[in-house]
Amino acid sequence: MSIKIVTDSTISIEADLIQKLGITIVPLNYMIDGVIYTDGDLSLNEYLERVEKSSTLPKTSQPPVGVFEDLYRELTKDGNSVISIHLSNTLSGTVEAARQGAALSGRDVTVIDSEFTDQALAFQVIEAARLAALDASKEEILAAVKKIQENTDLYCGVTTLENLIKGGRIGRVTGLIGGLLDLKVVLQMKDSALTTFMKGRGSKTFKKFIDEVSSNLAASSRKVKEIGISHAENLELAKSFKEVLQRFVEKPITLLETNTVIATHTGRGAFAVMITYE
Questions:
Q1: What is each CA distance from 142 to 10, 76, 131, in whole angstroms?
Q2: Backbone φ and ψ of 6, nearest 5°
Q3: What is the tens place of the pLDDT at every residue in 215-260?
Q4: Are residues 76 and 106 in the same domain?
Q5: Residue 228: inside a domain, yes or no?
Q6: What is the CA angle 111-115-121, rounded to 5?
Q7: Do 161 and 185 lie in a common domain?
Q8: What is the 3-state secondary structure (H, E, C) of 154-173?
Q9: Fewest beta carbons less than 10 Å away: which of 49, 96, 135, 248?
Q10: pTM of the model
């Protein structure tokens, strides 16, 4: 018997690792002007162009419960078990759909709310898949995933709050008041909650952010295990962050485009910096 690892398409991960580690990814969906797409159908740039031409913000939706039920039955037909790790339930109903699918399947499936998304989700999924390939027990894998979850920071910067407002996410963010559309904001995600880490006007806000993160890392006694940086059509800024932060971690920083579902709410120009500690 082996353990199969499942996640969803809000994960940002290097393509070769998906196949190498045998990770199964269940796609979310989105609708632009009445047309339904599966996450991954469009490149990020093509997607953002269509969104910007649309009169309304695309609607995103989690995979149907039946998709999870069928997948779990298929993956466990030879006696395998499944660990299914998904984006935070504050961002999507995906993890709840997975739980319902697991219950309906009647199979040995453990569903985990990662409390994150993007590369912070990938930190957990990759470690789970790596340990599964080494024939670690379910208990060992779950303990390792929990440790990563408890030792991860996620920061997300947006150049406009328009999409967050349209998508209804802004009401879940603590500390944002007045003149919202003019603000550059860095949010922090911790324990599934979004809070305001920093806000200001102009590009100097993001320079101030990376300086503060660097100062915090330099003063901390915690050893950084891994750093991931993702972006939505803001490669130059992401590269500048990588240059600043690489000195704090031995492993090369992974620099990736974010996925279309996350970009729906953050808009063009957004970035995320995710740090996990030993």
A1: 20, 18, 10
A2: -125, 145
A3: 999 999 999 999 999 999 999 999 999 999 999 999 999 999 999 9
A4: yes
A5: yes
A6: 80
A7: yes
A8: EEEEECCCHHHHHCCCHHHE
A9: 135
A10: 0.92
